[in-house]
Amino acid sequence: MPNPAPGFVSRPDHRVELLPESGRIRVVFGGVTIAESSAALRVEETGHDPVYYLPEKDVRMELLHLTGHHTRCPFKGEASYWTIEAGETGSSRRSENAVWAYPAPYDEVSGLARYYAFYPNRVDSITVT
Question: Which of 24, 32, 110, 114 is deepest in the core (most CB within 10 A)?
């Protein structure tokens, strides 16, 4: 069943590019590596800084808890959010709605399915090597 992005109808010049990232992306929170991948996507979108999306297989999903928060992007679709709970022994921390993904992205960005992004200001670090 087709699932076209309505945003491109009104703004056909808007750009959302999914580019393979050549570096290795590592996300750390609470002293714990939450995600690490050499198969990440770098999303470059008009009016936004680049965002790294990591494949689900490289994300420690057991440290994420789905929340009821959702947003909608007219170019990518409905985003779901997760809270991170992690930390070194005896010092667990939480970061609310720190992770997002598009479970059913619009057709134009279908490559985002099963990829997760992290807010840089809600984790300790996101590094590219």
Answer: 32
| Contact by Cβ (8 Å): 109, 46 | no
Task: Note the Cα 9 to chain centre separation in Å.
Answer: 24
For β-strands 25-29 and 16-20, DSSP reports them as unpaired
Domain that holds residue 56: 16-128
Measured CA to CA, the distance from residue 108 to residue 18 in angstroms comes to 10
Helix (H) / strand (E) element for 65: namely strand 64-73
C-beta of residue 14 within 8 angstroms of C-beta of residue 5: no
Q: Check which CATH number belongs to the domain holding 101 and give it.
A: 2.170.150.40
The Cα 65–Cα 73 span in angstroms is 22
pLDDT digits (tens, 9 = 90+) for 7-52: 999 999 999 999 999 999 999 999 999 999 999 999 999 999 999 9
Number of domains in the chain: 1
Compute the distance between CA of residue 44 and CA of residue 71 in angstroms, rounded to an integer: 19
Which residue has tokens 């590219």?
128
